[in-house]
């Protein structure tokens, strides 16, 4: 009989928690879906009270809350049989600046979740299986599934709250009349620039079905008179402007596609114009930590893109007739973001 190899007990624990990681994602998503942070806002409540407020089954909500105690999202008082919000749960509160509620919900929704379900096939093939699994690539899928698409755009707006102010602060807008948020979703990033500089007019370009939320977002921010919302395709063309913002765009695409988007910006750019790419930079900025490495895997699972290092960004820019003139790392608790500025090569 062959002797069984032993697993170190620490490794057993760790591998067990890695293997069950999806359970945690779905617990967090359910908590956000059922608005548990909102239901606990006024103070501790029983599982029955939370269930009633959330229109859910009381026994299932009790089990959900028990898991949330273990995850430190809530605490439990046995005497009153009530659950109370912890500070951690506050990260899922919808009214929190930069809330992660929409992000948690969209990560565990079919577009991402089912694509990740084909992870082994994607690694074997070297590319995302999203088109097979969902019936179309992710952004087309979002166009056809409005609620999930709107959730994704809202999550993008929320993520922008975490670094948008710092990223906008390093972009010099002197002489910029018009800035285009290329693939801007709700336009949160160009809004940041416009708040800093009242002389900047913003254009939000995104797919026609996706860009619908941008008008509403501009109105919410009182910027509607200075924002033009344009439904279009950045592979076809982009509007003329002095500044192009490409935030979290190139990482969705392979090199050929990325060069095409950049070339379209370069050829529509007003004389003296600039392009600002906001992305995480892996490699030279530091070895990618867990978050960056996993985001790169996410790109492999759900898009045709990937995270890149400086040399890879420079290659894309050069192929599009551009050259990098500035590169500013942006402090972030998670990802090694940078604002990369480029101008046309003569
Ligand atoms: C990862 S999101 C980034 C959104 C936004 N720039 C931000 O950082 O919050 C990528 C965006 O590109 C848009 N997009 C995808 N394909 C596009 C196309 N062909 N033309 C215009 N926008 C597109 C998507 O709809 C989505 O809003």
Automatic annotation (TrEMBL):
The active site is at residue 251. It comes from the Bacteria. It comes from Murinocardiopsis flavida. The keyword Glycoprotein does not apply. The keyword S-adenosyl-L-methionine applies. Keywords: Methyltransferase, S-adenosyl-L-methionine, Transferase. GO terms for biological process: methylation. GO terms for molecular function: O-methyltransferase activity; protein dimerization activity. This is Methyltransferase family protein. InterPro entries: COMT-like (IPR016461), COMT_C (IPR001077), COMT_dimerisation (IPR012967), SAM-dependent_MTases_sf (IPR029063), WH-like_DNA-bd_sf (IPR036388), WH_DNA-bd_sf (IPR036390). Residues 16-87 form the O-methyltransferase dimerisation domain. Residues 116-322 form the O-methyltransferase C-terminal domain. Pfam families: Dimerisation, Methyltransf_2.
């Amino acid at each position: 009989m062959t002797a069984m190899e032993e697993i170190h007990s620490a490794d057993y624990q760790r591998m067990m928690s890695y293997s069950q990681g999806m359970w945690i994602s779905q617990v967090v998503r359910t908590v956000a879906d059922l608005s548990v942070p909102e239901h606990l806002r006024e103070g501790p409540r029983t599982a029955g009270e939370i269930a009633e407020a959330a229109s859910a089954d009381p026994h299932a909500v009790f089990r959900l809350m028990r898991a949330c105690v273990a995850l430190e999202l809530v605490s439990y008082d046995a005497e009153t049989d009530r659950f109370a919000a912890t500070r951690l749960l506050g990260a899922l509160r919808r009214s929190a600046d930069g809330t992660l509620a929409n992000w948690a919900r969209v990560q565990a929704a079919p577009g991402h979740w089912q694509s990740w379900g084909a992870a082994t096939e994607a690694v074997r093939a070297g590319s995302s299986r999203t088109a097979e699994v969902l019936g179309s690539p992710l952004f087309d899928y979002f166009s056809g599934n409005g609620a999930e698409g709107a959730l994704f755009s809202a999550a993008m707006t929320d993520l922008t709250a975490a670094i948008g102010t710092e990223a906008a602060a390093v972009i010099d807008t002197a002489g910029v009349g018009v800035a285009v948020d290329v693939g801007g979703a709700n336009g949160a990033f160009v809004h940041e620039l416009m708040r800093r500089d009242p002389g900047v007019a913003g254009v939000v370009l995104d797919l026609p079905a996706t860009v619908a939320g941008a008008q509403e977002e501009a109105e919410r921010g009182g910027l509607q008179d200075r924002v033009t919302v344009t439904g279009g395709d950045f592979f076809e063309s982009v509007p003329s402007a002095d500044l192009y913002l490409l935030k979290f765009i190139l990482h969705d695409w392979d090199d050929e596609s990325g060069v095409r988007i950049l070339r379209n910006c370069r050829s529509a750019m007003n004389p003296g114009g600039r392009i600002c790419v906001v992305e995480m930079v892996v490699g030279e900025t530091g070895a990618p930590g867990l978050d960056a490495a996993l985001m790169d895997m996410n790109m492999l699972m759900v898009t045709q893109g990937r995270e890149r290092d400086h040399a890879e960004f420079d290659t894309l820019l050069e192929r599009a007739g551009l050259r990098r003139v500035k590169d500013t790392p942006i402090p972030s608790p998670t990802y090694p973001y940078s604002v990369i500025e480029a101008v046309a090569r003569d």
